Amino acid sequence: MTETTRKNGLSRRTLLKGTAGFAGLAAGSGAITGFPYVKSADAKVLRYLGTAVNEGDDISKQCLKDTGIKIEYITATTDDVTKRVMTQPNSFDVLDTEYFSLKKLVPSGNILALDARKIKEFDNITPVFTKGETPGGKKIGNQGTAPWKVLYLEGKDSKKFATSATEFVTLIPTVYNADTLGIRPDLIKRPISSWAELLNPEFKGKASILNIPSIGIMDAAMVVEASGKYKYADKGNMTKEEIDLTMKVMTEAKKAGQFRAFWKDFNESVNLMASGETVIQSMWSPAVTKVRSMGIPCTFQPLKEGYRSWASGFCVSKGVSGAKLEWAYEFVNWFLSGYAGAYLNRQGYYSAVLSTAKAHMEPYEWAYWMEGKPAEKDIKAPDGSLLEKAGAVRDGGSYEDRMGGVACWNAVMDENDYMVRKWNEFIAA
Amino acid sequence: MPEEVLQQASPGLIPGSGSARVAKVTRLSPSFISWLQAGPMMLVFLAFFLIPLMFVVIVSFWDYNEYQLLPAFSGRGYTDTFEGCIAQLPELCTIAKTYLKTLKLCFLVWAITLFIGFWVAYFLAFHVKSKTWQMGLSLLCTIPFWTSNVIRMIAWIPLLGRNGLVNSGLVKTGLINHPLEWLLFSEFSVVLALVHLFTFFMVVPIFNSMVRIDKSLIEAAYDAGATGFQTLVNVIIPLAKPGIVIGSIFVITIVMGDFITIGVMGGQQIAAAGKIIETRVNALQFPAAAANAVILLAITFLIITMMSRIVDIKKEL
């Protein structure tokens, strides 16, 4: 047994030497081209776990071109990403996740904070994340798990969120947006200006909200507050009584047949809206874009009570160290250097470092997406398909107006367990 | 559950193929050979069903917090599940409502698939004479499985939706004035989709039982003056019982645990036992999810036991 092993070991080593020599020869001679992966022993590969939001093929291709880092996407839903971090922390290198899940992820010790000093553009990250205000100085609503509450850790291996800036950053910000209700203006035929309209009996059997408890409860809270039934101290951290009250209002509406369906998946929301099954519902920005690209009028309606916002960013698995950690920093730095930011901006999201993204966008694109000005030319999606004709104005207007109008953030509450139980009760009612 | 059925079926299947080998290896005792034959399936069953199931039961008695399992004995998964069941009386608590709804859907789907499945199988077994046609027509029954679950679900919207084919057809013919809302995202659509999917699981075992019925028995019944109906009730149905029970087990176990079809076709507004487990798992509350899984398993097991009381499958096979 031992002898064979040794023999195998020997022969393998000789083989390796041989290959290396041959590779060196090939590289040295320059005669053989088209072999960029000869150094496959240390090919830079990062396994990237996240939702589909940031995971564009164009982004990974451009990244490989610019940095030589090969990104392997592991795509999962928001809930499944969290589950995977908890149960299989060694199955990924870079994690792209939302700030609200940090309340679960950080105490688990399965993720590693990144060092702010190694992020080139860190000082240029929009004040939305660091100060809770827009670049123009508008204060942003801080109910729920707002990013600035959970951005820093007290120490490298600390499980406590720091109240002031430290160099240990939980998630390096990448992308965020302000969500609101989507409506079918052609079927509603009148202006909509409040979250309360979701429960207006006028839309009986034609309304919908999303069936992801930690996001759905926030939409429900916006509706309850807008209808003047209750004013929360913090929508993102309700007491048991507040959860009961919120679910009671929603349950009554459900029993009265207000909702056509609930949705859980991006495509479900697109189908409900496009087919006219619903005319008013919680929605995500790219879903509205998708409905519009089918030639069906759909508006991401700004409402007077404000937006519900979300944000996500990068960290690494606790198992990542050495050279791999350096690649991770290289990748994150690349991500913030402009190409990816411009790509996300063109989809209707916002990038964390505005200056670099701006440098990668045409002035007319920047004016449409970020400044709320009428499009000078046709607006195209990253894949080249037509999104808006010249003259169109973005729903909700400029970055300042939209992010400045944020009222609350997606959240994991202290009473999360109770809330999930009540949510099940709501579905069963 | 399907494993159990397979296991019960396998003793009847294997001896034929094994008998040739027995002649060669005469030194081995017959009981050893039976162990050898049943062994692989048993190991698979043990490793991928019994052991994981044991873990589920153990975890269901653990405690948990936001981000981890706490391996200390706790009945919290169960007490949370039955929260308010006594306090809310006479009103039903969430879990009771959910199970009543699940059982109702299950019963409807079972009854309809049994009715349709029985007659499809009857047609295939007694009216289609050629083996090739029997094969071809049974393959037709698999058509619902040719597309992915998601596509199938989405495809119902243009058909049953408010502006769908059925509604616009009915409105145009003047039968109704307003589109029927209950066609989609309702119990009706859930049952329709489940029946459409799972009738096949009824057809196959019933057909299998029926082709094995000795045709001379039917001729004898005819000769003895039995009417068609009497032959059906007294000869065919009793002899097709094992197929009926196996088909029923397939359909009931699948529907009891389903949450995807019920979710999509019910517009996520209809509670299902499986859905509770999914929500709990997604919220990382594994012990609570495990507790619900144990409850679901117990109830399904109870139904299966009751059914096998009615027909002793082992004996019938």
UniProtKB/TrEMBL annotation, chain B:
Upper lineage ranks? Bacteria, Pseudomonadati, Pseudomonadota, Alphaproteobacteria, Hyphomicrobiales
Q: Which SUPFAM superfamilies match?
A: MetI-like (SSF161098)
Q: Does the keyword Hydrolase apply?
A: no
Protein's UniProt keywords contain Cell membrane: yes
Kindly give the membrane topology term recorded for this protein. Multi-pass membrane protein
Compartments annotated for it: namely: Cell membrane
Instruction: Please give the PANTHER family that the UniProt record associates with this protein.
Output: INNER MEMBRANE ABC TRANSPORTER PERMEASE PROTEIN YDCU-RELATED, INNER MEMBRANE ABC TRANSPORTER PERMEASE PROTEIN YDCU-RELATED-RELATED
Q: Which UniProt keywords are listed?
A: Cell membrane, Membrane, Transmembrane, Transmembrane helix, Transport
List the GO cellular component terms. Answer: plasma membrane
For this protein, the record's Gene3D superfamilies field holds: MetI-like
Give the main localization category: membrane
Listed name of the protein = ABC transporter permease subunit
InterPro entries in the record, alphabetically?
A: MetI-like, MetI-like_sf
